[in-house]
Amino acid sequence: MYNIAVIGSGQIGTRHLQGLALSAEPMQIFVCDPSVNGLAEARNKWNEVAQENGKKNVVFSENYSGLPERLDVCIIATTSLHRKKTIEEILITTKIRFLILEKVLFPSVSDYGKTALLMRNNNVKAFVNCARREFGFYRELRDKFSRDSKIHFTVFGNNFGLGCNGIHFLDLFVYLTGCSDLIMLTPGLDKKIKESKRKGFKEITGTLTGFDACGNTFSISSFEGNPSPVKIIVSSSDRYYYIEEGVEGKFLVSEAGSGWSSVNGLFPVPKISELTGNIVDDLLHAGTCRLTTYDESARIHIPFISAVKDHMEKCLEIQLDYCPVT
User: Fold this and answer.
1) From CA 212, how far away is CA 130, in angstroms rounded?
2) I want to staple 180 with a disulfide (CB 3.0 to 4.6 A). Which of 39, 118, 218, 299 is the partner?
3) Are 273 and 20 in contact (CB under 8 A)?
């Protein structure tokens, strides 16, 4: 029986927990969170999907004292402020084979190298849950655009949380281009810095632009207004894709090879609770998965949080100790 831990029983952590129910493997699952209410909600969410086949047992705890000496997979779904300390504390008493980390990884640039060294010294392989790499549609899209020399990548929508979720779209850009050396440009960001729905954090609106070392360009915009499905445009000299993500994904494609005629289609947009089980099974069986490796994700995170922190400091006219996004 495999030992799996979910650290943090908020909305994302409970979705990971539900996803583990779809794993084919027998598991002892440990859910840790200092919040009694959070654990109660996690228990309710687990009961919605649990199968009475004896293959999985779940233990809920307010601390790490009940964790075993070895974890096969540890999913850390805390906020960015607590993530580094959480990794450090667990590794004091528990060996971990694989880590799955939520974004934003850490709010301070210095945390990335320190955590990389800590994981290297403890032989931990870590991945970051930028889950679009698990979507079959985006895997096919990457194959299509791999034939093209340069692409332009555009994302736009209303109030989708550019500070919180911008990493997801930057990761998709890197996934499609294969180049993770990014330059961020912030003149298009709004000067008004908003309070995040998560206490103690900030949020931004406006447009983040930039480019990579291979000449590919990106533009990611979150506008004020009623929330709307995110739209993505990926284009090159040979093809154009317009994509809408929602409960079900929609796309329009036009390619030079077909005389630029347009074709519409649909694609599934799986939830975390539909992906985690397969991701964990891949780690257990193959020793890897499709998610972004820690090292590649750190190369995306560092210029992003640096740019956002600099922008916030200019707008708020204060010096920040870290970038307050999660």
Assistant:
1) 19
2) 299
3) no
DSSP code, position 189: B
Residue pLDDT, tens place only, 27-42: 999 999 999 999 999 9
Residues 144, 110 contacting (CB under 8 angstroms): no
- pTM of the entire structure? 0.96
* CA 236/CA 257 separation, integer angstroms: 13
| Superfamily of structural domain 136-269+303-316 | Dihydrodipicolinate Reductase; domain 2 (3.30.360.10)
Q: pLDDT of 192-222, one tens digit each?
A: 999 998 888 999 999 999 999 999 999 999 9
Distances (CA, A) of 147 to 60, 172, 177, 178, 237: 49, 17, 10, 12, 11
Tell me which residue of 145, 110, 79 sits closest to 301, measured CA to CA.
110
pLDDT tens-digit readout, 146-155: 989 899 999 9
- Give just the sign of the alpha carbon dihedral 138, 141, 147, 152: negative
Domain spans, the chain: 2-131+274-290, 136-269+303-316
